[in-house]
Design a protein that fits this description.
With 375 residues, the protein is of the alpha/beta class. It has helices at 2-18, 52-58, 73-77, 79-88, 108-112, 126-131, 134-140, 154-168, 172-193, 224-231, 237-241, 251-257, 285-296, 305-308, 325-336, 346-357; strands at residues 25-28, 34-37, 44-46, 67-70, 96-97, 118-122, 145-148, 201-205, 218-220, 235-236, 246-248, 261-266, 280-281, 312-316, 365-366, 368-370.
Length: 375
């Protein structure tokens, strides 16, 4: 037994050594640009604050340890997760929140004053950052910008992005542990859904109820939720109708297409108009059910064949652009293919990610659900 443990310890140490990053490091990011990282980054700026959950997979003891500035989107889109992160790492609240939007709005001087040696940004923000001159200014200061992506090509680029960050931050071993887990879980979905014919038709209303119950129906085409629906082998209504990446589809049109499942995404947005199903931490089943029932009262909603047949579901909104989007995929698979995935437990997968690959505390809440029967 002792010999076995010794060999295992040696193998682990050897693996960690092999996976160590050598600098200077040249790599190609999700924007297709070639970057040279001269030394291990110690002072990072994060354009999309939700990517702190990616850093949690890599800098596990403290994902905030390298952060000098960020756009704390969690504070706006999921305050309960932000509270949990603060409870574990209270110094996080002292990191400058630069209000760095996808539109390229940024107080660049306040960021530069922090002397960053790397900016991590989502690929979707690249056009705006380029048009506003942010990229040029950072390039002039020799501050590299690494583009990662969890939205535009969610299944292809999420594992790639985590691998890229793992290489960049000298955390390759930690990255591989998670991406291996990710690919195994995704493959188990594909093994079942590829056999289903014809492919189910699905409509997902993103941010349903954010601007009140009277607004309907914003959705995604091939990106975000649309890309994830297609990734589990289903047809996405938004992909078939929208001319661009995202947009609105009339409820009448959705009714006429008779989707097999109608899915909404919701969160606890800090908005006075928010009537969304409040998925996330600190949420109870009665709250979720009440919000679902209110959603069913929208004009014309009862005419949806999926709602009539009990195929009305909801999911935590941030999974559309999230390093743990494999959990979102499992919820989608369970909703879209109820017969094939009766035993699948996405909440367990989420818990396993947190406990095995991060030190993020696990809170109590609801990340996905089927609407209650009846009115």
């Amino acid at each position: 037994m002792y010999r076995r443990m010794t060999l295992l310890a040696f193998a682990c140490a050897f693996s960690t050594q092999v996976m160590a990053t050598t600098y200077p490091l040249t790599l190609t990011d999700t924007a297709g640009q070639t970057l040279t990282i001269k030394q291990e980054p110690k002072r990072i700026v994060v354009q999309d604050g939700r990517d702190i959950l990616t850093l949690a997979l890599l800098d596990r003891a403290d994902p905030f340890t390298r952060l000098v500035a960020w756009n704390n989107l969690l504070k706006k889109s999921d305050g309960e997760t932000w509270k949990i992160l603060q409870s574990k790492w209270p110094e996080a609240k002292n990191i400058i929140d630069m209000g760095f939007s996808d539109k390229g709005e940024i107080n660049l001087e306040s960021v530069i004053a922090k002397h960053p040696d790397l900016m991590v940004a989502q690929l979707r923000s690249k056009p705006s950052l380029s048009q506003t001159g942010v990229l040029d200014k950072l390039q002039a200061l020799n501050i590299p910008v690494l583009f990662i992506d969890t939205m535009l090509k969610p299944m292809e680029n999420t594992p790639k992005s985590i691998t890229l960050l793992g290489e960049t931050l000298n955390r390759e071993s930690e990255a591989k542990q998670y991406t291996d887990f990710y690919q195994q879980h995704y493959q188990s979905i594909l093994d079942k859904t590829k056999k289903v014919d014809p492919k189910p038709l699905v409509f997902i209303e993103a941010k349903a109820g954010l601007n009140g119950l009277e607004s309907c129906c914003f959705t995604h085409a091939h990106v975000g939720w649309g890309g994830m629906i297609e990734a589990v082998g289903a047809r996405n209504v938004g992909s078939e109708l929208l001319p661009g990446a995202t947009g609105d589809v009339s409820l009448e049109k959705v009714i006429s297409m008779k989707p097999d499942a109608y899915i909404i995404s919701g969160s606890q947005w800090a908005s006075k108009t928010n009537a969304a199903v409040p998925f996330g931490y600190g949420v109870t089943q009665p709250q979720v059910d009440a919000a679902f029932n209110a959603m069913k009262q929208r004009p014309g909603f009862a005419q949806l064949s999926a709602v009539k047949e009990g195929r009305f579901y909801g999911i935590y909104h941030n999974f559309y652009n999230h390093p743990y989007n494999i959990v979102g995929l499992e919820y989608l698979a369970k909703f879209i293919y109820p017969n094939q995935f009766q035993d699948l437990d996405p909440a367990k997968t989420y818990s396993e990610i947190l406990s095995r690959f991060t030190e993020v505390p696990e809170g109590q809440g609801i990340l996905g659900a089927q609407a209650p029967a009846g009115k």
